[in-house]
Amino acid sequence: MKKKRHEVILSLIANNAISTQEELLRRLKQEGYDLTQATVSRDIKELRLVKAQDPNGVYRYAAAKQPDMPPSPKFIAILENAMVRVDSAMNDIVIKCYAGMAQAACAALDSMELPGVVGTLAGDDTIFAITRSETAAAEIVRQLRSFIRE
């Protein structure tokens, strides 16, 4: 239900100049969602919506990050300099880093918001990531291995 609601919110803000939470709440109610202001506020936060000025000069809600945007060069640099090897077992990923580098690499990884990652945990030289599926784990391992300097 929440995922579908988030899809509806993204569609509404993409197709309408919605500038307030109240207006978004009203539009969602028109779509059949009986929500509270607090729920809409949480959805805005979870979706990382921002207010941006459109070509007409009107500030409106917009998605902060496009899903197909490449990772930031600074995050790539952190991963390139920290990671030693990456491997997976089923839907779990283990990333070995140089001593003392796992925390920074994990923060960079989290900031990249890779699809399919449920959560991460970093120690001194190891990051543990859980993904939603073996397929997601395999794709993320492939992506991360491309950042490892030989």
Notes on the structure:
The chain is α+β, with helices and mostly antiparallel strands. The protein has two domains: 62 residues, Winged helix-like DNA-binding domain superfamily/Winged helix DNA-binding domain (Arc Repressor Mutant, subunit A, Orthogonal Bundle); 73 residues, 2-Layer Sandwich (Gyrase A, domain 2), CATH 3.30.1360. The chain is built from six helices and six strands, in the order αααββαββαββα. The protein has a four-stranded antiparallel β-sheet. Strands 1-2 form a two-stranded antiparallel sheet. A hairpin with a 2-residue loop joins strand 3 and strand 4. The protein is elongated, with a radius of gyration of 19 Å. The chain starts with a helix and ends in a 5-residue tail after the last helix. The mean pLDDT is 89.
List the helices and strands and how they pair.
Layout: H1 2-15, H2 21-30, H3 37-46, E1 49-53, E2 59-63, H4 73-82, E3 83-89, E4 92-97, H5 102-111, E5 117-122, E6 126-131, H6 134-145
Antiparallel strand pairs: 1-2, 3-4, 4-6, 5-6
Q: What brief labels describe this structure?
A:
150 residues; alpha+beta; Arc Repressor Mutant, subunit A; Gyrase A, domain 2; four-stranded antiparallel beta sheet; two-stranded antiparallel sheet; 6 helices
Question: If you consult CATH, what is the topology of the largest domain?
Answer: Gyrase A, domain 2
Helix content: 40-55%
Which structural class do you get from the secondary structure elements?
A: alpha+beta
- Outline type: elongated
**SSE order in H/E notation?**
HHHEEHEEHEEH
Radius of gyration: 19 Å
Sheet with most strands: strand arrangement: 3-4-6-5
- The residue-averaged pLDDT reads 89
